[in-house]
Amino acid sequence: MAVSPLAPAAFPSLPAIAGVRFATAEAGVRYKGRTDVMLAVLDAGSVVAGVFTRSATRSAAVLDCQAKNGLPATGAAAILVNSGNSNAFTGKIGATSVAAISAATAEILGIAPERVFTSSTGVIGEPLPHERILAALADLKDGLRADAIDTAARAIMTTDTFPKGASATVNVGGKTVTIAGIAKGSGMIAPDMATMLVYIFTDALIDHASLQAMVSGSADGTFNCITVDSDTSTSDTVLVAATGASGVQVAGNDAFATALTDVMRDLALQVVRDGEGATKFIEVQVSGAADAADARKVAMSIANSPLVKTAVAGEDANWGRVVMAVGKSGAAADRDRLAIRFGDIWVAREGYRDPAYSEDETSAYMKNPELVIGVDLGLGEGTATVWTCDLTHGYIDINADYRS
Amino acid sequence: MAVSPLAPAAFPSLPAIAGVRFATAEAGVRYKGRTDVMLAVLDAGSVVAGVFTRSATRSAAVLDCQAKNGLPATGAAAILVNSGNSNAFTGKIGATSVAAISAATAEILGIAPERVFTSSTGVIGEPLPHERILAALADLKDGLRADAIDTAARAIMTTDTFPKGASATVNVGGKTVTIAGIAKGSGMIAPDMATMLVYIFTDALIDHASLQAMVSGSADGTFNCITVDSDTSTSDTVLVAATGASGVQVAGNDAFATALTDVMRDLALQVVRDGEGATKFIEVQVSGAADAADARKVAMSIANSPLVKTAVAGEDANWGRVVMAVGKSGAAADRDRLAIRFGDIWVAREGYRDPAYSEDETSAYMKNPELVIGVDLGLGEGTATVWTCDLTHGYIDINADYRS
Questions:
Q1: pLDDT, tens digit, for every residue of B247-263?
Q2: What are phi and psi of A46, to 5 degrees?
Q3: In which domain, by residue range, is B98 found?
Q4: Which spans in B27-122 are helix H?
Q5: Looking at the structure, do residues B268 and B240 belong to the same domain, yes or no?
Q6: Are A399 and B310 a contacting pair at CB < 8 A?
Q7: Beta strand pairing status for A339-342 and A345-349?
Q8: Residue B359 maps to which CATH number?
């Protein structure tokens, strides 16, 4: 599969996080000739917080993570992720697989099973051949290295065309705290509470409740504001692990919260840039809504509209479809106060085509790989920004025969 | 454009409705070399009722129809429809165009302007060159014929690949009442309250309030249960005209209401069969939901899922994506009670792949042009049935460059 035209030039150089080591293996869960399991081991004292899909059919691994999130267990911890099989809708056998992986990982690492967090991503409804993962555990343990987060980013990919990573450093009281994270995701992207598989590591010192509050808050404006295809995964998981190795306390620290949000947004936008079949990156900016909830409704209605997304794919400045998406969103709207722009070009104002509208100028703008669709409803103070991509033949190619 | 593979073999032979005459013209609103305006004239005593889109950005013609629906005006009436331009999001100029068309039509026919109902369908946001329609009025009047409903069905098409018609006869107290209707619609189909442009005629005798109640009730289980692409039009309109020419009173008559519903469902399903790029017709049957609202949420979540629709296009029995769509719908669901079937083949029961599941048998079923996706939630008595089509390269082809 060709790399997305919206991919970054290269995978970023991610800093090592004191207290975290990584390893990957070719377990052959489904794919051949590539890594498909990653293990991250966190030193004793690490705190892990997460947000997860709200799907009513969420996977066995998600249910297990939710049960373990915030438990008072201490000591070292681990995150084990496989690609190729999501272990979702696999009934009681699915839970058995998660328990087997957790128990074996705990035993080989000498840690508590409730400190092992697992994720699975890939096809839904097939039993997970977890014995293949168990068979790789010894090699994974032997291969643990502090500088291998880039290999971990590759091992968790499914239809992704590039690995996704982001990092930040924060100055807290004159000391440096470091954050590094990885993500996977390309299709079935319309996160509800969290998205896809995302693992973020920091050497900050923080208690679970404070970290959980930061992660939940940051997810709202980052992972919960992206959509590729309006379809919400059964496996969406964001885990943030703080090892405390820096000794720098960050509970309630605004600079740290901002840096964490920045890393989460960076990873979220990389997921959109790897949207299945994507050739255009689209930022939808809504202002003037009656309230923030209405602004989000309008932004998501535009971002999820197949007609808007195909028009962008065709580089067609079809703002009539934006009008349609505003109209169907369910949010309060008044045609005669509505204004629409593509980038900085106003195409419609006060319920009508802008008198200065230039088809040539707008068509030229649509050829850019990164586009802004702006809508002002003229009613109130509500704003929202969401990110999406276009809908192309590539999406059909990828999804008309993914399972086979 | 090739005719949809799901099209009926031929346009049905529709009966003439006493009291209704039709004419069409090539006004050149946007298209060249084809008819693009249709006029239906209803004899004095006719009653017209309708349901319309709830879009917040509905078109000028829809707003005008809603204002006129149920007014006490009497005498002859008219319905005038153009294709090629929807006169939506055209500000105050849009309302001016509707008023000009209504006034001119009323004058040439010698009827009250509030008895002229208009619709426009096509591109959004372009001023309607209504003077081209006015120039065609004299020819339209001269061309009125009782047996020309088939030409009317063709004049209102946009991206439709075939004209859509349906009829029924009802025995009421030993006398015969006849119903005949036409529709257009292919993309931007996710009706909310009504759909697309639909015109139904009957010689039944009925008062406006009774007819309106029947039309609104029938829309719920017909036009409001179809979706092509989840995008709701700014122009959706269903008008039902009863001329009373049969002299048969049908207010409150169940047989007539059923026949009207049947005609509406037939037309609604023809719209799905002409879904943009469609190669598969899909009926989604949901049972066992906590209530009817939840059943509809689940059915629409499946029917609007790009991943389910592309899987069907690829003839892939990807029931995992059905699980996903159930999970994201927001309806109450319990993985371990959920059962899924394709046609009569159960693929999953009690939260797991059915033990008798046969990949070969299911894959063979997916090659049919008409498919049933069945979901039983195992929770209550709520049921819903909705209809949709697959998502193919054809949809991208049609919509990546429709406006230009």
A1: 999 888 999 999 999 88
A2: -70, 145
A3: 20-273
A4: 60-68, 91-109
A5: yes
A6: yes
A7: antiparallel
A8: 3.10.20.340
